[in-house]
Design brief:
alpha+beta, Rossmann fold
Amino acid sequence: MTEPLAPGATIGILGGGQLGRMIAMAAAKLGLKAHIYSPDAESPAFDVAAAHTIADYEDEEALRTFAASVDVITYEFENVPARTASVLAALKPVRPDAAALAASQDRLVEKEFITSLDIPTAPFIGVDSAGALARAVAQLGRPSILKTRRFGYDGKGQALIREGSDLAVTFRSLGAVPAILEGVVPFTKEISVVAARGLDGSFAAYDVCENHHEHHILDRTIAPAAIAPETAGRAIAIAKSIADALDYAGVLAVELFLTVEQGKEVIRVNEIAPRVHNSGHWTLDGAVTSQFEQHVRAICGWPLGQTARHGTRVEMRNLIGDDILAWRDILAESGVSLTLYGKMEARPGRKMGHTTQVFHDA
């Protein structure tokens, strides 16, 4: 096993948004420094890091200088350019590694990887042309969902195909790029597992949580999810299988659909995210070890922390756009913790912060 880093070491983080910011803050708590690399000069993570670099992800000279200043490299988003990952991995450890990035950057590759582990997903077919889309729709039926294979999040890069949808127009509307058609899963709940795997193969999962979305953006997460204990056990086992297959190091999120079929709860993986995740924000104030500290521990080769939940349940709410204007009222609410991301402009659909509340129900 690789020698663990010592306090005083520097973590390099690709991406300067709220996830990078909260990783940097968790690192500081543990006596570690953070160096943020981002092309955005107004990245909120810069405010809490020991150092930052403003440069394009394709700037190889800047990447080499960045790598020379850090001891391990991680990232807050999975769409790291392949060349960027390659340049950095030749210089310093990148965790999670290139295999995790490859498995999550392309929706078709991701689905094929998951099904290769005998883990169920929605039915899917790769689509590279309008003609291929027509054939795929004939096989999977309507409604179905067309998604670009790359660069999609929060509902972006996808279109619902209904009865009467013009398939050629729909394909062009997504840029006529390689895509994947997925059958619609009539789910009753969306759940997720946030877990971590250490360099030594150790594994620790948080409570399976239940997620509610508005306009394709996560609105609210409740932990634990109201599901059968055996369903939660299966979900965590799925996350462990994925992490082990990737020889993963760091925090991983697995999003799943839950359906009820013949009176039995059935789960299917929707997608994986090789990073800290919005549905794990409840852990910041609602668990013994936050997902951000857990990620730092994992990539540094440190023992994983306890994942026990505080209270009987925890609820996290995202603050989107103008929701942030209520910050004074939120601060006045008893038992509510407020986390703001340091973003100066509240745009529609932009995640500005979140609240966490720990309940102690009888």
